Amino acid sequence: MGDADSLDQLVQAAVDAGIPAVHLVRDGDGVRILVRTVSGLAPVRSLTATGAWLDAAQALPNATRRADRVVIDLVHQESRAGGLAELGMPGAMRTAIERATLAPGGVILVASEDDVALTATMAAAVHAPGERHIVELCGDRADLDIAAQMDCDAILLRGGADRALLAAAFDHAQRGVRIVLGIDAPDVMAAIARLRAARVERHVIAFALRVAIAARREQGLCSACRRPAQAMGSESALLGVDPGTVIYRPVGCAACDGTGFAEPVTLFETVAVDPGLRRLLAEGGDVAILARHAFVGAPTLAGSARVLAREGRITVDAAIRIARAAGAAPVAAAAHPHLLMA
Questions:
Q1: Quick one: average pLDDT of 222-238?
Q2: DSSP code of 274?
Q3: 3-state secondary structure of 228
Q4: CATH number of the domain within which 94 lies
Q5: Looking at 45, 73, 101, which one is the last position of a domain?
Q6: Whether residue 56 is found in the same domain as residue 103
Q7: Which pLDDT score, from 0 to 100, does residue 180 have?
Q8: 297: which residues sit within 8 A by CB, 6+ positions away?
Q9: Quick one: CA dihedral 296, 298, 304, 310, positive or negative?
Q10: Which entry of 38, 207, 242, 328 is 20 to 30 Å from 136 by CA?
Q11: Whole-angstrom Cα distance, residue 180 to residue 177?
């Protein structure tokens, strides 16, 4: 099995190696990792995990927990070729989306100012094995009405400020058609604000919206040459970590042509619309109130950036830039599905 620095990477390495199941078992303050082989359960001694991995593993699809053991069933796990997993979305986020979109119809709202990230996330949101009838539209009400009658698995629609088109999309979503609506906006709350600015009725948004996703790409650090360093005081404050915490800086090597960087990394924030948020949307609650409810247990883009910086996936400067753009104040780090334990 290949190397792994995180739970998601462990699962992917196990899938690649054809391992049918991964066991995580609490052992004192740590967690033992075992994988199913032909001869029985074999320990993975090259990877250290902490107790937080048990909760993270429990949130993964096809994971079952009993007492201090979590078993991840990889035989029945949906193929990771394509979909949100392929884009790097953490398992806990994907699970929340899956649960919120079990019922037919509804709107999956996708926000990004990066056209590549927007296109990829919209497609990934409705990815599934087998042949599917996915229709992509761009701002034509007549085409939308026709497509809605053609037994589509989903309609991917780029939204603008056309109130009639947006209203029709939400109407079809309430009638059982799955609509993936892409909005040019920096984050989830900005996308909701733009729907309101287009005068889509608030109760329509409330009852048709199932999930909102924001995506943003940042240049990834080269894992072959990134250099660990201690965070400076200002960096520590903005990342929500103690001064001296180990972070990573770009260096440059043959693997990255001397740049210090690798392929872009996609950051996400996801909001599954629960009854409380649905009520706030229907009542026309302001964006600050919506955000306070939506992100109680879910990370914002700024939160995702902070964690990815601590993991050494992106630079500290990128995380700070994203936090400042979001107007994020320095906060203590909370449990997060991206979090990798050393």
A1: 87
A2: -
A3: strand
A4: 3.40.50.300
A5: 73
A6: no
A7: 97
A8: none
A9: positive
A10: 207
A11: 10
Q: How far apart are CA 231 and CA 248, in angstroms?
A: 9
Question: Do 35 and 177 belong to one domain?
Answer: no
Helix (H) or strand (E) holding 263: strand 261-272
User: Tokens 């199941």 sit at which residue?
Assistant: 21
Cα dist from 36 to 6, 66, 326, whole Å: 19, 17, 44
Token digits of residue 240:
């929500």
Mean per-residue pLDDT of the chain: 86
Span 150-171, average pLDDT:
91
pLDDT of residue 231: 86
Domain that holds residue 49: 7-73
Q: Identify the band that residue 5 occupies on the pLDDT scale cut at 50, 70 and 90.
A: low
Structure tokens, 109: 């709202």
Which band of pLDDT confidence, cut at 50, 70 and 90, is reported for residue 268? very high
The burial of 151, by beta-carbon neighbours within 10 Å (0-12 exposed, 13-18 middle, 19 or more buried), is given as exposed
Calpha distance 167→169 (Å, rounded): 5
pLDDT in tens, 317-333: 999 899 888 764 333 33
The structure tokens listed for 287 are: 């964006």
Same domain flag for 115 and 206:
yes
**Domain-embedded: residue 293:** yes
Say whether both 173 and 300 belong to one domain: yes
